[in-house]
Amino acid sequence: MLGTAGAAGAAGLAVGAGGGLLAGPVGRATPGAPGDTTPLSSVGAARVDFHGPHQPGILGAARAHAELLAFDLLPASGRGEAAALLRRWSRAAGAMMTGEAPDADNGIAGGTGPSGLAVTFGFGHDFFDAVGLADARPRALDPLPEFSADALDPERSGGHLWIQVEADDPTVVFHAVRTLQRAAADTARVRHRMAGFNRVPGAASGESGPRNLMGQIDGTNNLRPEQEDFADRVFVPGDGEPAWMAGGSYAVVRRIRMLLDAWEEQPLEARDRVLGRRRVDGAPLTGGGETTPVDLGAVDERGRPVIPADAHVRVSAPESNGGAAMLRRSYSYHDGFAEDGSPDAGLLFVCWQADPMLAFVPVQRKLDRGDALSAFIRHEASGLFAVPGGAEPGGYPGQRLLEG
């Protein structure tokens, strides 16, 4: 898993589907010198492979810019039209992820490298009804239960088809989104769109994850690929059900607004107790550094838990949820200001798991019942999508479903 190549000596490296490096010079023609190339920086040269056992955009660090889009098929579009659309989308995504121009390109990203572009496709619950394949819908795609803290906007939730587009350059993201939207014109329409961001590669060092808009390091205790059970937790096994989901994963997407005015009024010590970690360095309140394991059993001199009973880190910990865990890979967002001047900002929470009913749902139920952080956030949109395994060259994700 390669997050970001180092600033020095990284030009010409690209990220492979399995997290390895694809070597080779990557550049753009020098103006006025046909055939000559100027090496791209490490950011522009980063390349992710579209093909492989898993779709891109799941493994590795989340990129600096992202758009999450949901589409609904038009009434006249069925199984055949959906298959043709996914084939068009995959062909375009595969080209753009290598830094090449897709068919009928508009030139928006001219002169830029692939910049770590990754495009991921998924299917929502109602997609299967729309294409006449309700019997093939996975059990794991059953609608998520309602949670007491939800304030969901149905117009920004759900959708037949879901696309995650991410890259380290915003122009590359826009180019990909515009290309895919144009390719869908006669088959599907955009239902909703969410734009997010993370720290730009090379902007900071020494922390395992980016900071969210509450100022906290996000993702310290995330699942790691080197963990023995990582693949079992994140990906549907080859002999799993249904067979067309082998190598795939389920994405839960939540737009979580942070009530930053109320949060920032709290003293720093109070905010640290809500999270169970120190904002300054991400270390647990039980001591050590950012990556020091949290000691949920530690007590102070008066016998009180050092990590409060309702601290987010305690309530969400696998030890508090029967071992349930998921791969979190999220983005911050800022969509302006409300009429009262408060920022419409927060987290586009995206998590990946082999079965959301065994990972996201039990953890969210526990958070819903007793997380101190709940007073400072609001879940405003939600989605659950089946993301099939990766495509073979010339194919597209979900081909076994739509053409099987």
TrEMBL record:
Domain Dyp-type peroxidase C-terminal per the UniProt entry, residue ranges: 210-391
Keywords: Heme, Iron, Metal-binding, Oxidoreductase, Peroxidase, Signal
Residue span(s) of domain Dyp-type peroxidase N-terminal: 55-198
Cofactor info, note text: Binds 1 heme b (iron(II)-protoporphyrin IX) group non-covalently per subunit.
EC code(s) of this entry: 1.11.1.-
Highest taxon in the source lineage: Bacteria
Cofactor(s) needed for function: heme b
Enzyme class: oxidoreductase
Annotated TM spans: none
Full protein name: Deferrochelatase
